[in-house]
Amino acid sequence: MCRPLPPRRLGLTVVAGIAFAATVAAAPAGAAPITGFAAESAAQQRAYERAYARGVSAESIGRTSRRLSRRPQLIDTPGVRRAERISVQKLRGYGLDVSTPDYSVYASRPEKIEITMTAPEKLTLSSKEKAFPWHRDFDEVVDGYNAYSPSGDVSGELVYANFGLPEDYEALDELGVSVAGKIVLVRYGGSFRGVKAQQAELRGAKGLLIYSDPEDDGSGKGPVYPDGPWRPADGIQRGSIQYIFNYPGDPLTPGVPALAGTPRLDPADAGNLPGIPTSPISYGDAEPLLKALDGPVAPEAFQGGLGLVYHVGPGGTTVRMNLDIAYEQMPVSNVLAQIRGSSKPKEKVVVGAHYDGWTYGTSDNTSGWTAVMEIGHSLGRLLKRGWRPERTIVLAGWDGEEYGLLGSTEWAEQYERDLRRNAVAYSNLDGAGGFEFAAAGVPQLDDALVELTKSVQDPRTGKPVYDVWTADGTEEPEIGRLGSGSDYTAFLDHIGVPSLEAGFTNDASAGTYHSAYDDTYNMEEHLDPGYLGHAGSSLVTGTMALRLANADILPFRYSDYAAAVVSYVEELQGIQQEEGAAQLDLSGLLSAVERWGDAAAALEARADSLLASGYVSRRRAARINRALMRQERALTTPQGLPGRPWFRHQVYAPGLVTGYAAQFLPGLRDAVEQGDEETAATYRGLLLESLREAARLARRGARA
Ligand SMILES: [Zn+2]
Description:
This protein is of the alpha/beta class. Helices cover about 40% and strands about 15% of the residues. The protein has helices spanning about 40-55, 60-70, 80-95, 165-175, 195-200, 215, 285-290, 360-385, 400-405, 405-415, 415-420, 445-455, 465-470, 490-495, 520-525, 530-550, 560-575, 585-610, 620-635, 665-675, 675-704; strands at about 95-100, 100-120, 125, 145, 150-160, 185, 205-210, 240, 280, 320-335, 335-340, 345-355, 390-400, 425-430, 435-440, 480, 500-505, 650-655, 660-665. The longest helix has 27 residues, at about 675-704. It is globular and about 80 Å long. The site of zinc ion has 7 residues, from helix 8. Zinc ion (ZN) binds next to helix 8.
């Protein structure tokens, strides 16, 4: 599933590809303090981190990546079982304790994908890319299709609706064009594809085609595969259209693990299954459809990179979509490797990446998973030498992510109680190769992340990761906030586990995203030559896991969280100025956030002074850590968000009309925007309670 089109960035640092760095150099020694560590434990931690860094090898990652991505790894295929077997074998070989908890989920398989232009001439669209000589088992590359689309055989006139965002349909309204009873053609970008399907369904469309415009990730961006990394005319972006913004995971068991004895919903009652036949197509195939389309000329914002004047229709082009999609129970099997903590074994730092993929999946997500496995490789060597983290580190390979975060969601639902009590943090890697560094996460980890990137070296340039992060001249490194689209969702949004995703990326990975061309060739030639970005991701994520696992006092700065929430409340006050918004007083919220910020700052000062004194008793540290762990949990509410109770976090959730991007203060904000004063007041009350509870926890920690 992974990311939407990445934000456009200028000033890309281009460094000549180095074939292979045998072993990644260790970070320079330093006596600098580390937040959360007393002086003595900081010195030990530095030594641990240096030893860890010496064990991370780009060459080892490359070998594993090539092996895993030799064959497609789609859910419930021999290829994904092979990837599981290899992963288990490798992790056990590293000396780790491995288990493979599995679930039975309701999922789709394409039997026949047949899309035809029926007028002005008959033309059958292709459902798959062409193979190159280096592609093995190409028959196992699944046809271009959208997981969880219903079956159907629909025909009708085509209407083009740009990205399929609400404002695009408004623009069509102004032109007097309705999509009711039509087949809608939209392009990828701007929102999660499941949101596109829902928006079309809501407006009465009978089918939806989604294509990749060359302006967004194809020839308009640069040389196309195999000459460059960008999408060629026949590249198809597969992907799930599950309504993950309602709830992710198995459609039939929301909130509970999809185990053998778990009662299932009737599929007709499932709340995250889309309603109209939907299919992706390439821009090579979208071109004749758009060329023949009549009707008004599309607005400027709708025009794309096909070198023709886009019209919105209807008229000129008619299409038939004949989709035969089978639904059945399928197994998903996670791969979990555990490194038991020495002094606080119950407390857990979870590091995860999905190992399933749409096709060869070298970027999405063999890159993330091999980077996580390499953490296990290095930590396994250290285990043998007697190094053991204080808290338990769990390395997780998730199955079924591409269909709807299936493996991670079911696991988190199964172990919810334990995670609620004992999870320190969840760190995700989804797409972990490239030249640039990017990060997103909860605000209390911002400082720890920035601090860490100053001491971890980028294997490609030999410079601190921080320098790469800020190479485009930005003074403050940019840290995004998490919406949805990858496996942190259940941890953060459902349970309130502080989550982050930090690693190397390449914007150009969008060009082969979910196509047959996401392969080793593209990775080694274009995206991450030498796998050095992979190794950098292992270094950053692994070092962060070690800091969180070993910290005397967790380096959580909730004062930063409170400051972020203040800005969200202020933003919401701005939205209240808009027409139709619900009017209610938010000043009480602002003062509650400020009180939380003050209490959090007092706790941080207390922690720093205890650490500076060189000694913190175990009991006192445990009390403070509990107060720190529980503040994020306090931001969740058992009743969940309006209309989507699975989402319990009150500060972050996937946006209802974006799906990937984070919506701030979702319950309250959606209600304010919809002018629903009653719901807005309810969620203002719930948020207020959460903020007060967080402040109470912070004060308790400060008194410990
Ligand atoms: Zn992914």
